[in-house]
Automatic annotation (TrEMBL):
Organism: Pseudonocardia hierapolitana
One annotated GO molecular function: methyl indole-3-acetate esterase activity
InterPro entries: AB_hydrolase_1, AB_hydrolase_fold, MES/HNL
Domain AB hydrolase-1: from-to ranges: 4-228
Top-level taxon of the source organism: Bacteria
Protein name: Pimeloyl-ACP methyl ester carboxylesterase
Length: 255
């Protein structure tokens, strides 16, 4: 049995992992998928100063309050910055870091530091008076390669504006711990791929393992079976996933 903590990215919440959680739990694993402050059912807790440090503290609290140890910590998209910060603070609780189509900022750097200036300025132009980035949801789902109408209908009402501080604020300058690291690159990006560079860097670094999924950015929604298989370590390093038969358990109804 493995303990997983799954950290979502921008605009999402812990809800986005439901299919993967169901698969991992059915295989006997312990799974936690917290929702970061200001998102999902915690959107009402957002403040103008909500940023990366708050999101790191959210996940550290899960590790400490539930006394989780030997954790496989997974970060999706901007959640890559969060899991890096968690590893800086509590490496003693972790077994492995997994970056799912995620940003990988170095200590002292932010997600904004990794974005082209034009994209960073675009996001800054969408910040509302509460300090949150408000997206055109349909355009965003197109960019995340969510083609299925039922998936989009489920995702759209759950998305929330994202605190800009989560992208703007730098990680602490503390050195990174010596933990195993894995990068999972999602390869279906008709509109361009912001994460190919991180995958290439992982592929050239023997300290990393690189896997690929033949799906869009939101793999936890579009390819939960293949993703769960990778997370449980069944597939060998570097294996292309297009041949895997995916499993898509139905999304649970809200209470």
């Amino acid at each position: 049995m493995t303990t997983f903590v799954l950290v979502h990215g921008g605009w999402h919440g812990g809800w986005c992992w439901r299919r993967v959680v169901a698969l991992l739990e059915s295989a006997g694993h312990e799974v936690h998928a917290p929702t970061l402050t200001g998102l999902g059912d915690r959107a009402h807790l957002a403040r103008p100063d909500t940023g990366l440090a708050v999101h790191i503290a959210d996940v550290v609290a899960v590790l400490e309050l539930d006394d989780l140890r030997d954790v496989v910590l997974v970060g999706h998209s901007s959640g890559g910055a969060v899991v890096t910060g968690v590893a800086q603070r509590r490496p003693d609780r972790l077994r492995e870091l997994v970056y799912l189509d995620a940003f990988v900022p170095a200590p002292g750097r932010s997600v904004f530091d990794l974005l082209p200036a034009a994209r960073r300025d675009h996001f800054l132009g969408l910040v509302d008076e509460a300090g949150r980035i408000v997206l055109d949801l349909d355009a965003a789902m197109d960019g995340w390669s969510l083609p299925d109408a039922a998936d989009r209908e489920w995702v759209r009402p759950r998305l929330r504006p994202f605190p800009v501080g989560a992208l703007r604020d730098p990680l602490p300058p503390d050195p990174l711990p010596d933990l195993p690291r894995r990068y999972i690159h999602c390869t279906v990006k008709p509109g361009g791929d912001s994460f190919a560079g991180f995958a290439a860097a992982a592929d050239s670094d023997p300290a990393w393992r690189l896997d690929r999924l033949d799906t869009g950015h939101d793999a936890m929604i579009t390819a939960p079976g293949a993703l769960a298989t990778l997370l449980t370590g069944v597939v060998s390093a570097g294996c292309q996933q297009s041949h895997l038969a995916d499993t898509r358990p139905p999304l649970p109804s809200d209470p």
